[in-house]
Design goal:
The complex is a heterodimer of chains A (214) and B (118). Chain A is built from 8 helices and 8 strands; from the N terminus they run βαβαβαβαββααβαβα. Chain A has 214 residues and is an alpha/beta fold. Chain A has a single domain (11-211), classed as P-loop containing nucleotide triphosphate hydrolases (Rossmann fold). Chain A has a 7-stranded parallel beta sheet with strand order 4-3-5-2-6-7-8, sandwiched between helices. The radius of gyration of chain A is 17 Å and the shape is globular. Chain A starts with a strand and ends with a helix. Chain B is of the alpha+beta class and 118 residues long. Chain B folds into 2 domains: 1-68 and 103-118, hypothetical protein PF0899 fold (2-Layer Sandwich); 69-102. Chain B is 25% helix and 29% strand. Chain B has 2 helices and 6 strands; from the N terminus they run αβαβββββ. Chain B has helices at 3-20, 42-52; strands spanning 27-34, 62-66, 70-74, 80-83, 98-101, 106-113. In chain B, the strands form 2 sheets. Chain B has a 3-stranded mixed beta sheet with strand order 2-1-6, covered by helices on one side. The chains are: A alpha/beta (214), B alpha+beta (118). The A-B interface holds A 1-13, 90-92, 94, 122-123, 125-126, 148, 151-152, 155, 180-181, 183-185, 187 and B 1-2, 5-6, 9-10, 12-13, 17-18, 21, 23, 25, 32, 37-40, 86, 88, 96-100, 104, 106-113, 115-116.
Chain lengths: 214, 118
Amino acid sequence: MKIIAAKKILKANEQLAEANRAAFNAAGVLVVNMVGSPGSGKTTLLEALVAALRGRMRIAVIEGDIAGSIDAERMEAIGVPVVQINTEGACHLDATMIAAASRGLELAAADCLVIENVGNLVCTAGFDLGEHVRLVLLSVTEGDDKLVKYPAIFRGSHALVITKCDLLAHVNFRVERVAADMRRLAPDAPVFQVSAARNEGVSTLADWLIQRRP
Amino acid sequence: MHEVALVDALIAQVEEEVRRAGASGRVVRLDLSIGRLSGVSVDAIRFALELLAPGTIVEAAEVEIRQPSAVARCAVCGHCAEIDQIPVHCPRCGSPEIVVEGGRELLLESIELEESSP
């Protein structure tokens, strides 16, 4: 007997991601899946975004890390409702973890839920969490060849944020090369240049996020 | 990538499909499609199957993996080619404006069960 399945192997995750998205839409919450390498500046950018959006968007956060609660503590310190997920070794977040974690947040009291994924340019690409926007970060210290080397994560993202741009004078990083590679992989995704340390470019990104609200 | 998580999901899915079809018996063959741009390593899938399959419904299954290519089309000159990697430039006109289609499949295509004796 042969069963023709013709189904996606991650169908269970995708179904749960769709259910998450429906719940987020019902609550009127914009959900952002923030991905990037360890040390690309995800938490620092998030702190800067919270400040830039104060009074305009109420932000809640889910922090995904293999271990520890350092990032959640940073969010608590700036008054942001936060749930920490520890994946205990897993290299990515999945839709099940987000369904459970979002029950620990009062979604009705938020306009935007940012999910800071595990620092990883590979595995996070494969798992839809139910977000509306996948924001991929690339810091200038990582090098300008990363879009060529890790295309999947960039190809499925809705915007690219080049971080630590205050260091551009000190590193060999060609912004125009990265922008060209991003046009090739994700033609509709805007490319933002920010420096959270100098608070440059953050408000442009914040304005773009506000326009994404469902 | 996360091939162990994928194989774990795959085995659960095979169990569900077999149950839904009202079938029983050992799975003797699985057909999968893993696109060449999916970021998933076929070798790592096979290794994860060796680890996870024993004691499950797919324990005795022969696993066939098809690896569909992607097609790249140059938006400037229209040149088309099958690719295994996203090219940086069009090989014909040098333009970086390339549209890529397909190659990202991760599919459980079919499941074959042992003929059950009457």
